């Protein structure tokens, strides 16, 4: 454990105790060792007794920095788990984090541009438009075309703070694996390493710009999602410039209702966007908290989403994507036996798992969800119950699915907020059925043949020559293999002969030594020793020189 990790660990404990978060634990459920540990930090007292618990939690996460702020952002969407006051306070972490000094922002922007702001932009606003956990946004006008833009710049020293938190998390995960002795199943270190890759990628605004461009291109003709235009020539590791957009935050349901937004269509499009990004494009926005999602003010009867902050994007392997789609379909069709089979086939549970027992366990958790609207079910509760069930079947946690699970929770939170009566099953099932039809069966085979036909046509004239070359290569390889086999056999023969002579010489030398010490007549001893020496020299010299076959 490094000095930096110890220092950061102490800062986390200090912040938790000074904001009185330990008081949130029920006294009758607090274990004795926790009380003992709390007593070891007797000098750290609650300094915010005048504030309510929800505000204290928000301020503590704000104090601890980006990693904890992002946790608060995710929790703010879970109104089924939190009451309104807690959700309201944590929602402030989405885009109302206290800004840093605008003078520092100007310095950082000009360092990235390597020239004064006024050379490229007019009307630069020193007052930030928004301030988040990792970055801050200022507005300006681009000199070259007069378009309104926003300049997103990283907070000072944010990389060092995140690295310290990640080190602490890594060490905690390693300790957890050691204590539980169950790292192969839970794999906490691997999950944290996957999170490290994700959040460090978010610190590179150039990479975020490229992600935004790719996502924009995926939905250029869509009436469901709009991604602002990115000015790639003005994007750097710590600075990003993109089109300024105007919309209503998705969390401002009062304003959406006032403009006559079609909430049902909006909620359905949210579900469709999730499945489209995951299954059609295999490139999904994995940070869809309300601070990053706006709703258009144009045509409220036909609303579309505006997506920001593409720093965290997720992808899946083709195998995981296929198994996931089949799992969803089996789930929608209540085919729990197929779900159990898929988990075994994908390697997510052991091949020795009792399929029938696993099927019944999944059915007990999932069956109560059907025929209910979104406001009467909770994916969070279902995931918790599934994890509890999985512990009995040694399920292997899949780190590559962590981002997807997080995104699904965000989608559920948004859907519950916008249109709680949404029938999730009827919205998602047709999309998945169409996607599966395109992946398997005659239609999928025809599509693959059509896609590869130009390549095969180009390669067709080369087929005779390729066949001839491969036949020649095969004959040459057969000859080489025979030569290697002959060399190996000769090596083995020499080795056996040498070992036989050396063992025989050792026996003769031992016999000669015994006869020399016990026999009155010495000439048998001399013969054994002499013959043993001759055989040893012969065996040593007959050893194979090398093992190159």
TrEMBL record:
Entry's Gene Ontology BP terms: regulation of ubiquinone biosynthetic process; ubiquinone biosynthetic process
List of residues binding ATP: 129-137, 152
Protein topology in the membrane: Multi-pass membrane protein
This enzyme's EC code(s): 2.7.-.-
Pathway: Cofactor biosynthesis; ubiquinone biosynthesis [regulation]
Keyword Zinc set for record: no
Gene Ontology cellular-component terms listed: plasma membrane
Record-annotated active site: 287
ATP-binding as UniProt keyword: yes
Pfam families, per the entry: ABC1
Swiss-Prot/TrEMBL keywords: ATP-binding, Cell inner membrane, Cell membrane, Kinase, Membrane, Nucleotide-binding, Transferase, Transmembrane, Transmembrane helix, Ubiquinone, Ubiquinone biosynthesis
Molecular function per GO: ATP binding; protein kinase activity
UniProt domain ABC1 atypical kinase-like: residue ranges: 93-342
InterPro entries membership: ABC1_dom, Kinase-like_dom_sf, UbiB, UbiB_bact, UbiB_kinase
Enzyme class: transferase
Compartments reported by the entry: Cell membrane
Segments crossing the lipid bilayer: 500-517, 523-540
CDD domains on file: UbiB
General function of this protein: Is probably a protein kinase regulator of UbiI activity which is involved in aerobic coenzyme Q (ubiquinone) biosynthesis.
PANTHER family per the UniProt record, alphabetical: CHAPERONE-ACTIVITY OF BC1 COMPLEX CABC1 -RELATED (PTHR10566), PROTEIN ACTIVITY OF BC1 COMPLEX KINASE 7, CHLOROPLASTIC (PTHR10566:SF113)
NCBIfam families the record matches: PRK04750.1, UbiB
Family stated for the protein in its record: Belongs to the protein kinase superfamily. ADCK protein kinase family.
Protein known as: Probable protein kinase UbiB
Taxonomic source organism: Shewanella aestuarii
Originating gene: ubiB
